[in-house]
Design goal:
This protein is an alpha/beta fold. It has 16 helices and 14 strands. The protein is elongated, with a radius of gyration of 32 Å.
Length: about 400
Amino acid sequence: MELQELLNKKIKLPSQFPRPVKVEKIELLGNHYKLWVRKEDELFEEIVITDEELKEIQVISDEINIPVDAKYLSLLVESYRIRYAYSYDPYFAVSLSGIQTLPHQIEAVYGKMLPQPRLRFLLADDPGAGKTIMAGLYIKEMKLRYAIEKILIIVPANLRIQWQDELLRFFNEYFVIVDAELDKQQALNIWQKENQIITSIDYAKQEGVRERIWQQNWDIVIVDEAHKCSAHTKRRSNRSPEREATKRYQLVEKLALRQNHFLLLTATPHYGDDDRFAHFLRLLDPDVFPEPHKFPDEIKKIKELIFHNKNNPWILRRLKEDLCDLNGRPLFTKRHTITISFKLSVKEYELYEAVTNYLNRFLAIKGTGSLRQSIALTRTVFQRRLASSTFATFFLLFSSSIITKNCFLSYS
């Protein structure tokens, strides 16, 4: 066979390739022949063949259609069916997961979150609503659409295993838990190497760690217990008000500014401080929510917009009383709060006064700002123990006396 007849022809060469290849260049190499061929997957490869192998070559005519193995054709069709399944099954991730979803979870993921081309969302349902499940459903649906690949989940340290377990068990999605020990063992930057990571917020906020996290192009960032990312307005008599933010807030704020999709999860979005809440909302979109220390009159309007407008695209909050199963039955027992009055006996009142006097003796009665709040909290904790039992009060007083003694010895 003439070598030139092989150029730009599809050939069969069983000793080298199981499938036909196209010859693009031929070169004589001593007693052998060097061929440059392109395979069916469009990859280019160089091979060297002998005279015997050259004789085995079969040229495939363009007019001849080679039958495809039915097994490979079936796999190809199935792969395309799965790839585009979301277009005809609106709840495809539900079908693939190992959970029975509830109406409020479907509403959150498929009614509020998925329709948004760029998600900036605060999911603030009461505890027990399944916020982890909703986040997992969203991740699965977005991955099926090839919309996200690099995922970062930031949680409190005690919730890392729970998140990893539920995402693997219910959605077959494995996430690597990155902590200080694993991070130090890596020769390469693990934040760049891994695409699906769970880490604790207190590790991620550290200097030297957060810079490497910020450098990555995360497709989505999810923050659980997001209310722990706190900022407030600092006021001074001789200066204009300015923002003071914790390291947790700084970490999440910079991540929020760069990402396409951003999801905050918390059961307590607003805990009585309008200023902190306004700063918290700025994590979602600083262009929409103003700085409270610069625009204090806008805070009330923001609360009205968020909590009284159910069609707002930024936040969804449902109380336990609002949650039902597929049959419309309440998921949780209804709560009824009542106040019960009682009278202390003489001995109980004497004990209450003795504990209060003890606290006043060892705690600074006067204080301002955060110190005053800490003193009030400490006094409340001790007095609540009185309502529990005398043993609980004794144990707490005994522990505090040991701590006070150790602090005194250290100071001396």
